[in-house]
Write the structure tokens for this entry.
Amino acid sequence: MTESLNRRINEDEMHLLCIRAGAIYGEHSVFFDSEGDEIELTHRVRSRVGLAIGALVAAEWIRDKKGFYAFSDVFKSLISGGQNGK
């Protein structure tokens, strides 16, 4: 799916760009851009080991739970110190 915005972006709107290309396992960047400067935060996956560990952590987290969850639920639990959601 490709969409294009053929107008100027208003100041109160967020601009989102997604490019999927190349043979890198995973790379994503967030840019904060203004007329005066730009801030870039980039995450690059160097091997699939990290992806596998993340999948195992998520599987362990959801093991005894019922319902629908997003990865943000796993992340919130981990940053609050409860690996198993406790």
In short: The mean pLDDT is 82. The helical segments are 48-62, 71-79. Residues 51-79 form one domain.
